[in-house]
Amino acid sequence: MYNYLQSMPKKLRILNYLRFILAFICSGVQIASAAPEKGVQAKLLSSVQGTKGHQEILLGLQLTIPQGAKINAPSPENPAVAPVFEWQGSKNFKNAQVSWPQSKRYQIEGLDFYAYEKAVLIPIVYVPEKVNQSITAQAKFKYVLCQEQCVPQELSLTISLPSDRGEETVHSPLLTQAKQNSSVNPLPIEASVSFGLMVLFALLGGFILNFMPCVLPVLSLKFMSITRQEARLHKAFHYRSGLWATFAGILSSFILFGGAAMMLDSVGERIGWGLHFQQPVFLVFMIAILTLFTCNLFGLYEIALPGVVQTRLSAIFGHHFPHLVEDYLTGVFATLLATPCTAPFLGTALGYALSRSGGEIILLFSVMGMGFGLPYFIGALVPTRWLKLPKPGPWTMTLSRFLGGLLAITTIWLLWVLMGTHSLLATLVVAAAIISMIILFYVAQKRPEIRRWVWGPFFLILFTTFLPTTGDKAPASTSEVSKGLWQPLDIKKIPELVKAGKVVFIDVTADWCLTCKINKTLVLNEKKVLKTLSSSNVVAMRGDWTRYDADIKDFLDQYSRAGVPFNIVFGPKKTQGLVLSEILKKKDVLTALKRAQSD
Length: 599
Fold this sequence. Notes:
Elements: H1 2-6, H2 14-25, E1 41-46, E2 57-64, E3 70-72, E4 84-86, E5 95-100, E6 104-108, E7 111-116, E8 119-127, E9 135-146, E10 150-161, H3 172-181, E11 183-184, H4 192-208, H5 219-233, H6 239-266, H7 280-297, H8 307-317, H9 321-337, H10 346-353, H11 359-372, H12 374-381, H13 394-421, H14 424-444, H15 455-463, E12 486-488, H16 494-499, E13 503-509, H17 514-524, H18 527-533, E14 538-544, H19 550-558, E15 566-571, E16 574-579, H20 586-598
Parallel strand pairs: 12-14, 13-14
Antiparallel strand pairs: 1-2, 2-8, 3-7, 3-9, 4-9, 5-8, 5-11, 6-7, 9-10, 13-15, 15-16
Helix pairs in contact: 4-10, 4-11, 5-6, 5-9, 5-13, 6-9, 6-11, 6-12, 7-13, 7-14, 7-15, 10-11, 13-14, 14-15
């Protein structure tokens, strides 16, 4: 399934171009003797004047290539070097399928390469999401132009068709003939069966996320929700309502993520998983809220709405409505804190979801939310006698302090992440504000009038986002770089290293990814793995995604991955890369390194 997704056109970006380019450049063969005066001329043609009566629209990309120049074409042996079509920004778009015309084969140093020259017409079957409605096709065509040297190029083309016409154009016979003479796209658009499989992957991935190391910071929130339900059991409160509220908080948060992804995709913005942990605004907000929760669990104050508000809400929605709001917010915060990392199946489903558009994105994110909230869903269906804990007593106070400690550790972790994404100055200011809040809450236990002063340091935490950030982005590797093992991730070097017979092991990580830290501690720093990575024929590269990096995002996109951890091995026998699971195992890493060298 992974290889199938890897072949998706949207995901084949700059690395595939580089492989193609280096093959020409490193060969020492001059492709063209002189640079042409003009670049590639392109035009998007349509076989019909409008969409009326047509379930599919036959389009064609007409390219005029300068004399002596060539552009890359699909290869039967390696379709990854094909040009790429992207359709972001298109209106009324479901999918599109390209039929590649026949190309010329060139042999350089025993290697076969395929290219187009002079003029070429590429047929495209454009399938609208809604039949008999107008369309606007916005295509980005990314290719490699080889003249005296090979350089990646990009063309942007647009064509709009109304819904009130459906007659053929003068281009129809030419496009129909071109489609008959062309081969089926070797990089197929996903079939409906794969969408159903991705829905299953989304559900499984969301559920597995509950057991990933990255959810450790939210265990306190989950335990707090469970103990709240237990207290209500002994007060004859129907616990199912509280669990449904938490499930609703989780589900609505995932739907919100999906909506945001859909809107960003519609305007051509880059989207990914866990990117909110790269935003100082999100981090300082969560630090402020978690500080309040921590102080509450340590008994420094009680979280409660003003009496007038509680009375009004109870009158409108019922006596237990304020408690349901707490449960709902528990689900929201648990989701926000549990999404810096991906999980098995989830990474594949996320990459697929972020390549889709419209309602499909919302549906897949909703299914992920259902999977993540499945324990609460099941808990709401379990009989009361199965959920009972000891009656409230001294143990609840001890548990509350323990949960408060977990939240305090989570807050410290977010402070550390803030230092990497923002600055040391902001981190010190936030830490001072947190200490001030704790002192004020403690003093306010005897002098309640002081409690209102807490809002001062609380808002100070929020305003730290306006402080100047560190100019340089996060380093591309950790302290191991100085020891000569890990090199900063350099995507352009990979094809050259592989051609020289090296095995390249890549680890993409981030400070906010706890699963990444677990992988590093238990597997990558294990003695035998470390020895193998340090051998002369292995090059270890590490990319740091603590802060946003467009090159890393491009790299992840190529392999249909939306987040970290991400590990892949390249070698003479695995030139396209061998992707490892999100949860690394010593055996899998060693096997992958061996297969990349001599499969």
